[in-house]
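Supplementary Methods S3. Input chains for the assembly prediction are listed below.
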Amino acid sequence: MKRSKAERQRLLNDTMEETPFINDEQLATMFSVSIQTIRLDRMELSIPELRERIKSVANNHWDETVRALPMEEVIGEVIDLELDKRAISILNIRSEHVFSRNKIARGHHLFAQANSLAVAVINDELALTAKSELKFTRQVKEGERVVAKATVEGKTDKGLRIVQVNSFVGQEIVLTGNFHMYQSNEE
Amino acid sequence: MKRSKAERQRLLNDTMEETPFINDEQLATMFSVSIQTIRLDRMELSIPELRERIKSVANNHWDETVRALPMEEVIGEVIDLELDKRAISILNIRSEHVFSRNKIARGHHLFAQANSLAVAVINDELALTAKSELKFTRQVKEGERVVAKATVEGKTDKGLRIVQVNSFVGQEIVLTGNFHMYQSNEE
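Predicted structure tokens for the full assembly:
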């Protein structure tokens, strides 16, 4: 079913609000149009390209610093962070992240992105993983970009901080689960 | 309580049978004697040094080849493997595996060792992780050696293979849990 241009641009706007880190290729597939059409739509709607949108999110919303580890020890690029609340990072899946044989991302790299984001979001000098429960719901291939979103959800009976993490490629969830984090002291 | 030499050597023999990959430092701590005393005990009991014991286990019991991935993609050194049954690997925790700040091993390296062992033990060309449930029960420090033991435990309702993994430093468990593995076909 072919959509009118107005209809497509309205949906495009909605999609960008829900998933600001979707790229032009994914949008083109979603709307069954060419990438060039998506680019023209974005220009007409004054939606900047992905790289600019990521920068903008980082500049607008991110005024905190990770505490539990040096920033360079986070796996993936942190683009949003509010300590003890939420964090977002991006990991581009390259050749070093995949099985040589089938180019599918290895589980421990997706784990590393999610786990280090769970560490980063904790507002404490010390944050250690006590438990993890994860589902890997879709294969991730070389060349895809994984957006991980961590949300601090409260505490367990034992006082461990629960961090929920969902990782996406485009709008598809690829990893979902939670970490129980030990931290050294209460804020 | 100081043990007699005969008593200590009897316990040492038992300990070596249960945990053949324990090292002299750990034994010295366990028996509250010097490392030199442990070495002399081993000589008298004709127990070879750790390196030789590891080689011996590898040579005696390991006559299979991993199928789901090239051996060099396994994180850690596989020292025992029986496809679809069990596998053991060793990972020496070095500076690149730890948080710079506190020298505690990062969760994703322990995950990587356990997860890649779970992949390696599957007797199939394709093995992918669908789910993991893990507890990190003790911090692992730089310089420690982690022995991961994977056991294939049957199948879930959905036909996923369950692999139980326990990782140890000496006799202490540091990681325990399981992976649900998708494989491409039945043998």
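The two ends of chain B are 55 Å apart (CA to CA). Chain B is about 30% helix and 30% strand.
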